[in-house]
Write a structure and sequence with these properties.
GO terms for molecular function: phosphoprotein phosphatase activity; phosphorelay sensor kinase activity. This is histidine kinase. It catalyses: ATP + protein L-histidine = ADP + protein N-phospho-L-histidine. The chain has 342 residues and is of the alpha+beta class. The chain has 3 domains: 104 residues, no CATH class; 62 residues, Signal transduction histidine kinase, dimerisation/phosphotransfer (DHp) domain (Helix Hairpins), CATH 1.10.287.130; 149 residues, 2-Layer Sandwich (Heat Shock Protein 90). The strands form 2 sheets. The protein has a 5-stranded mixed beta sheet with strand order 2-4-5-7-6. Strand 4 and strand 5 form a beta hairpin. The longest helix is centred in the middle third of the chain and has 57 residues. It starts with a helix and ends with a strand.
């Protein structure tokens, strides 16, 4: 391949030759004039052509070549687009397109790395959460096997503890399956008109015994008439059970969990509020992450899979809405979301 130097010399030679040929047709033109004309045209032409080729063509092509080599090495660091000099020529436009492509690929690589890190953390969390109930049940069962003549009351107590650990494992596996199915779209949201009031009262009945054990009042306030929304009955029931149950679990003794139903223009605002210990501000952004717990020791005592709020977030998103959380330490926590009117 010709270098810009040799190509400029070749083109300058041709141009100088053509100029000298035309000059030779003029009268009174001797050899000395023709020679000087040829040499000066050749030198000046080669200098101008070399500068043009080297700066306008070859330098830009070399930059593109360097970028392509960087892409092959998976090095996506490029000059920011703002620093590019805007030129209306094909080489510059091609370079801009390449820069744009490389920037896109760099973002994709960053997302893949982020996803890989998230997968690793998720697998570590799942392994830990599965290990705890399995080891607990395993310990109780092996204790009974090692002591077959143990007192019947002790055997019963150990079996109950083993069963409780396995029940917790069952809840965890079901919650993991639910999250996975919602994320992959395996679970379809079947929106139908439903009245939220009877649903909330039904959930209050389900959780009444749990609330009474802490002397917590369950209260429904807000819109006087029917609260008709477009929603999936089973999934919204799951959302409300999770939120109300959390209010009871983490609420104070002799506390209160309130469900507000407020009418808006095109939707109903649903708010589940407790007067419990609240959540510190630094934990709020991560509250809907899988397995995230504000107080890990307290969460373990209260049970649960650590996936409840993550499931809630996914279900609400599947209803084309979003859930928000507001909390103040020692004042309580409030979750709220909107559902479209039926």
């Amino acid at each position: 391949m010709l270098s810009p130097r040799y190509l400029s010399l070749l083109l300058a030679f041709v141009i100088a030759g053509v100029c000298t040929s035309f000059l030779s047709f003029l009268p009174n033109t001797d050899f000395t004039i023709l020679f000087i004309s040829f040499i000066s045209s050749f030198i000046f032409g080669s200098a101008v052509i070399y500068f043009a080729l080297d700066n306008l063509v070859f330098k830009e092509v070399n930059k593109l070549y360097d970028r392509i080599k960087q892409i092959k090495k998976k090095n996506f660091s490029v000059i920011p687009r703002k620093q590019l000099i805007e030129k209306e020529n094909p080489i510059e436009l091609l370079k801009e397109e390449l820069n744009s492509y490389v920037t896109t690929k760099e973002d994709e690589v960053k997302e893949l790395k982020k996803a890989a890190k998230y997968r690793q953390e998720f697998l570590a969390d799942v392994s830990h959460e599965l290990k705890t109930p399995i080891f607990a049940a395993q310990g109780f069962v092996h204790t009974l096997l090692d002591n077959p003549e143990e007192d019947p009351e002790i055997r019963k107590r150990f079996l109950e503890k083993a069963a409780k650990s396995l029940d917790g494992l069952d809840i965890l596996v079901k919650d993991l399956l639910t999250v996975s199915q919602i994320e992959t779209g395996a679970i379809k949201i079947d929106k139908k008109a439903l009245d939220l009031k009877p649903l909330v009262l039904e959930i209050f009945e389900q959780l009444e015994a749990k609330a009474k054990s802490k002397n917590i009042e369950l209260k429904l306030i807000g819109h006087p008439g029917p609260v008709l929304v477009k929603a999936d009955y089973q999934r919204i029931s799951q959302v409300l059970v999770n939120l109300i149950d959390n209010g009871i679990k983490y609420g104070h003794q002799d506390g209160k969990v309130t469900v507000h139903l407020e009418e808006k223009k095109k939707a109903f605002l649903i708010m589940v509020k407790d007067n419990g210990p609240g959540v510190p501000a630094e934990h709020l952004p991560r509250l809907f992450e899988r397995f995230y717990r504000v107080d890990k020791s307290r969460a373990k005592l209260n049970g649960g899979s650590g996936l409840g709020l993550s499931i809630v977030k996914h279900i609400i998103q599947a209803h084309n809405s979003k859930i928000s959380v507001f909390s103040k330490v020692d004042k309580g926590t409030s979750f709220q979301f909107k559902l479209e009117k039926a």
